[in-house]
Structure prediction request, 203 residues.
Amino acid sequence: MVGSTVTDVPELHLSQDPAADRLLSDDPLALLIGMVLDQQMPLERAFAAPLLLQERLGRTVDAADVAVMDPDELIAAFVARPALHRFPAANARRVQQLCQLIVDEYGGDPAAIWDTAPDGTELFRRIKQLPGFGEQKARIFIGLLGKQLGVTPPGWEEAAGRFGQPGTYYSVADITDSESLARVRAYKQQLKAAAKASAQPAG
Prediction:
């Protein structure tokens, strides 16, 4: 196999809800959707959303299915209370675009994005290409794949940047339990406070 993956998929703890985390661990598309939604809302809610989406649609969320779904049906599932995101309609469209790309480029298999990547450079290129993934989110996701899911093609650490470093609490790549979640949240709060302080006018 080109991308090194473990046989027994580890249990993720991103949503802090056992059922939602099991889905994230078992279903690569669910994990990608959670990553897409992880912005401008609490990360636990973002990563719990794929399970809620599956329950609202009444079926397993499959890339090929979502790609051809009536956009209004998908938006309705996102908008229903509690909404799956602060901006549910826009993110429903983004998730549908993600699924269409997976169908077009990877035969409908989301795991092929990383399982067939020959090295970290190509892995970064592929993930950054996905709707909803900018440069930083792509590096965070590579860090998550490498640190927790055993996806370690040559050069993955360089592709992940600081998010691939061991012993850090920078992002979702480092969340393995409630304690690490609290440490990651504290780090993000420090960044926000520093950014706010630097934006204050001098004097």
Residues 1-7 have pLDDT under 50 and may be disordered. The chain has two domains: 8-110, 136-195. The two ends are 59 Å apart (CA to CA). Residues 136-195 form one domain.
